[in-house]
Design a protein that fits this description.
This protein has about 425 residues and is of the alpha/beta class. It contains eleven helices and 15 strands. α1 runs parallel beside α10 and α6 runs parallel beside α10. It is elongated.
Length: about 425
C-alpha cells in the first residue's frame, strides 16, 4: 500500500476525469460476464479487468488490487485468501463495494490476477499501479508565492504541467457573489467583463469596486493570474483553463436575497456556465432555490457551495442540497477549522484557512492602490478551491456530468478524518 494523497488530490482527480481510473491497456483472455460495478461513472467488471502487465510497466511488487461484487461482505472479502499464504488488506473507499490489496506469494503477478479474477466474489482486478507525481516545470514568480500553501496542498502546479501536454478547453465559471473589482490586476485577465452582470444594480458589472471585496477574494482564489510577478495565483490560474463570469447578487453590505440569487443562477444557466460557485448560505431550504439548482445540475453545471462559518452542524443552504458539493474549511495541517460548519450532510474538505486573496476586506480596494492582498479564512475561501479543481476537470473532459464530477472529487479526496466519510471532514 502506498500513501501520499492530499485533500482534493488534483492530478488524480484530473486523471479520473479523463477516464484513467485503471491502467489504459486492453485486457485479454478474460472471461466475459455481465455483472459490473460502477465507480464514479466508470464500469469495473471482468471485461475491463487488467490481467496483463505491459513490459516496463511499474506496479507494486507482488501486489494486486481487487474490487468485490455487489453484496460481498467485509468478512467474505477477508476470507478470500484463506487457505493460502497470500494476505489481503481491505482499503477504505467512498464506494459501497469492498476493495482489497492482496499481497501474493508468487512472483508472477499476471498469474495472480487471473487466479483471483476467477473467484466468484471478485468483479474486477488490476495490478497495484505505481503513479508518479508529475515533475512541475512551472515555477511561480508571483510576489506572494510563499503564501500559496493551498496550491501545494492540492498539487496544482503539477497538474498545470500535466494539463499543458493534453488537449483542454476553457471552462466558463459563474461566481454568484458580491461582484468583483474589474480592474484588480490579478483577476481582470481571467474575467469576461462583457458577460459579467450586476443583478442587484442592473446591467454589466461596474468599475466601481465598492462592496465587492468578498467577490474579489473568491475570484482570486479561483483564477488569479499566475506568473505575472504580482500578487498570488488562483487554483486554475494558469490562464488557459477558466473564463470567469462575475454575477453580482449581493449588495454593498454582503447580503444576498432569494430573488437576486434565483435570477443570478438562471443567468448562469442561460450563458452555459459549467461551474457555479456559491460562497454564501442560509439555514432556510426553499423549494424555488432547490428547483433551479436541480435544473442547473441536470444541465451539467457543477454546483459548489460553502458549508458555513458557524462552527456547528446546522445545515446551510444551498450547500446542503444533495446535488451541490458542500465544502468544509481546513487548515495547512489538514485539520478542520473550528469556525467551519460541518456535518454528515457535507461532502468534502478543502483549504480555507489563511488563504492569500486580492482585495482584502480590511484594506483599500486593490484597484486604487495597485494591488492590495491579504489572508482570508472561511468556507467562502474553501469553496472556490473546489470550484477551481472542478473547472480543471471539465477542462480536461467536457463530457463529465455534474454528478460525475462530484463523485470523482469524493473518490479522490484524501481521507483526513475517521475512516470513510465522516461528519467532521466529509470524504
Amino acid at each position: 500500500m502506498k500513501s501520499g494523497k492530499r485533500i482534493l488530490t488534483f492530478a488524480i482527480a484530473v486523471m479520473m476525469s479523463l477516464g484513467i481510473w485503471t491502467v489504459p491497456v486492453n485486457a485479454q483472455g478474460v472471461i466475459s460476464k455481465t455483472e459490473k460495478v460502477n465507480v464514479g461513472g466508470v464500469e469495473l467488471s471482468e471485461e475491463t479487468s487488467v490481467t496483463e502487465v505491459p513490459e516496463n510497466f511499474e506496479c507494486a511488487e507482488n501486489e494486486i488490487l481487487v474490487v468485490f461484487k455487489d453484496g460481498v461482505t467485509k468478512t467474505e472479502a477477508e476470507e478470500t485468501t484463506d487457505g493460502c499464504s497470500d494476505e489481503i488488506n481491505l482499503v477504505d473507499t467512498p464506494i459501497e463495494n469492498e476493495v482489497g490489496v492482496i499481497t501474493v506469494e508468487q512472483t508472477d503477478v499476471e498469474e495472480a490476477l487471473s487466479e483471483y479474477l476467477a473467484d466468484p466474489n471478485v468483479a474486477y482486478v488490476q495490478p497495484n499501479v505505481k503513479y508518479k507525481v508529475f515533475g512541475a516545470s512551472t515555477q511561480l514568480n508571483d510576489e506572494y508565492k510563499d503564501y500559496l500553501w493551498h496550491l501545494d496542498k492540492i498539487q496544482a502546479l503539477d497538474t498545470w504541467n500535466y494539463m499543458a501536454n493534453i488537449a483542454h478547453e476553457k471552462v466558463r465559471v459563474a461566481m454568484v457573489d458580491t461582484g468583483v473589482d474589474v480592474l484588480q490586476p490579478d483577476v481582470r485577465n481571467s474575467l469576461n467583463r462583457s458577460l459579467s452582470r450586476d443583478i442587484v444594480g442592473g446591467g454589466k458589472i461596474s468599475s466601481d469596486a465598492e462592496g465587492c471585496d468578498h467577490g474579489t477574494n473568491v475570484a482570486g482564489i479561483i483564477a488569479a493570474q499566475a506568473n505575472n510577478k504580482i500578487g498570488g495565483a488562483g487554483v486554475a490560474g494558469d490562464g488557459s483553463f477558466v473564463e470567469l463570469v462575475a454575477v453580482r447578487a449581493g449588495d454593498d453590505r454582503g447580503d444576498l436575497y432569494s430573488d437576486d440569487i434565483l435570477e443570478a443562477i438562471k443567468y448562469a444557466i442561460d450563458i452555459d456556465a459549467r461551474v457555479i460557485n456559491m460562497s454564501f448560505g442560509s439555514t432556510e431550504s426553499l423549494p424555488a432555490e432547490k428547483a433551479i439548482l436541480e435544473k442547473a445540475a441536470d444541465r451539467g453545471i457543477v454546483l459548489v457551495a460553502a458549508a458555513g462559518n458557524e462552527g456547528n452542524t446546522v445545515k446551510m443552504y444551498p450547500a446542503a442540497y444533495s446535488r451541490v458539493i458542500s465544502v468544509i474549511n481546513t487548515d495547512s495541517s489538514d485539520k478542520r477549522n473550528s469556525s467551519s460548519t460541518y456535518g454528515s450532510w457535507c461532502d468534502i474538505s478543502a483549504p480555507g484557512t489563511d488563504i492569500l486573496v486580492p482585495c482584502s476586506e480590511t484594506e483599500e480596494f486593490s484597484r486604487r492602490s495597485g494591488g492590495i492582498y491579504g489572508l482570508a479564512t472561511g468556507t467562502s475561501e474553501a469553496a472556490p478551491v473546489v470550484t477551481g479543481v472542478a473547472a480543471m476537470m471539465l477542462s480536461a473532459n467536457e463530457n463529465l456530468s455534474a454528478d460525475e464530477v462530484k463523485s470523482i472529487l469524493c473518490a479522490t479526496a484524501d481521507d483526513i478524518g475517521a475512516a470513510g466519510k465522516d461528519a467532521a471532514t466529509g470524504y
